[in-house]
């Protein structure tokens, strides 16, 4: 009897955690300053239940961000990145833009409570994918090599987040944002005229 009760309790706990994380992701994506009480209400659990799984706000925010990135990784990993790197980059930016736009406020909440190194670590898969694609474009001769690879990857990230901010401010339409991001990114990745002074690798 006790043996069967333990797996049941574990399953109940896992369902409770999933409900809390889902609620935190939804609430914080609307308001990065949302309180624990807001999450408790959205999840339909008690404060003691939430704190039993997440001892503080930072651990809850981290779990919400990790879940958003996990779902995003499923989307991005399905993108066809074969062939010409410039075309592949455009295909990757479209869903990347959507994911960034959806999670901007959640990321803001994370930046308030998590170390920058931890946030970079959580974004590791997406950063590695972009770096690999840019590196391939460099080998194909369609992307510049005169700037450090890590800088190029970070600039793509900055442009995506900048477009999300412009959209929130009403200065850029959501429908035109992906095209603007693609044009901007491809422009700064294009090799400069007159050769490339140094290797970005």
TrEMBL record:
A Pfam family that the UniProt record links to this protein: TetR_N
InterPro entries in UniProt: Homeodomain-like_sf (IPR009057), HTH-type_TetR-like_transc_reg (IPR050109), HTH_TetR (IPR001647), Tet_transcr_reg_TetR-rel_C_sf (IPR036271)
Residue ranges of DNA binding: 35-54
Source organism superkingdom: Bacteria
This protein's UniProt keywords: DNA-binding, Transcription, Transcription regulation
Domain HTH tetR-type, first and last residues per copy: 14-72
The keyword Transport belongs to this UniProt entry's keyword annotation: no
Protein name: AcrR family transcriptional regulator
Originating organism: Amycolatopsis thermophila
């Amino acid at each position: 009897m006790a043996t069967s009760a333990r797996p049941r309790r574990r399953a109940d706990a896992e369902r409770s955690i999933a409900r809390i994380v889902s609620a935190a992701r939804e609430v914080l994506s609307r308001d990065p300053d949302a309180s624990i009480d807001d999450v408790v209400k959205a999840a339909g659990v008690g404060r003691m239940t939430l704190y039993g799984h997440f001892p503080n706000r930072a651990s809850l925010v981290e779990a919400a961000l990790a879940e958003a990135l996990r779902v995003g990784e499923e989307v991005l990993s399905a993108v066809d990145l074969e062939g010409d790197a410039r075309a592949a980059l455009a295909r990757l930016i479209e869903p990347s833009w959507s994911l960034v736009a959806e999670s901007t406020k959640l990321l803001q909440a994370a930046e308030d409570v998590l170390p920058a190194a931890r946030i970079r670590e959580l974004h590791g898969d997406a950063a590695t994918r972009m770096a690999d694609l840019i590196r391939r474009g460099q080998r194909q001769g369609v992307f510049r090599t005169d700037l450090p690879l890590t800088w190029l990857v970070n600039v793509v990230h900055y442009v995506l987040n900048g477009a999300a901010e412009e959209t929130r401010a009403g200065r850029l339409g959501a429908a035109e944002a992906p095209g603007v991001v693609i044009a901007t990114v491809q422009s700064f990745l294009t090799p400069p005229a007159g050769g490339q002074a140094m290797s970005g690798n």
